[in-house]
Design brief:
Elements (H helix, E strand, L loop, with lengths): L11 H24 L6 H20 L9 H21 L3 H22 L1
Helix pairs in contact: 1-2, 1-3, 1-4, 2-3, 3-4
Length: about 120
């Protein structure tokens, strides 16, 4: 039997990380819609910012990433995406949400990074 057919158990950390990733994308959408003039440039930012984050994640960070890179690059991509989402909350004058998001993202990212090593 090949390893591709073996189911991978999903942990609580995996679920929390997935939620953090979704919240990061939603944060970028909200940043574009609420932080900038509508329809332009707000609508463009609401589409391009999360699309870039998703693209970076899919290319370098996801479990089935297109490019296999070392842990440093994975961590760098994750830091850029999560820090941008946190910055979006600060820019929207919601620093408490930004700090809480940043702490949760950092802790889950650190735990996952240690697990990957």
């Amino acid at each position: 039997m090949s390893d591709a057919n073996v189911p991978v158990p999903v942990t609580a950390l995996d679920v929390i990380r997935a939620l953090v990733e979704i919240i990061a994308v939603v944060s970028l959408i909200l940043w574009g819609l609420l932080g900038f003039a509508f329809p332009l440039p707000g609508l463009i930012i609401a589409i391009v910012a999360p699309a870039l984050a998703i693209l970076l994640w899919a290319l370098f960070r996801s479990p089935k990433a297109v490019f296999r890179v070392d842990n440093f690059v994975k961590a760098l991509v994750e830091i850029v995406v999560m820090a941008t989402a946190a910055f979006a909350w600060f820019d929207l004058q919601q620093p408490i949400i930004g700090v809480v998001f940043l702490i949760v993202a950092a802790v889950t990212g650190l735990i996952n990074g240690l697990r990957e090593i």
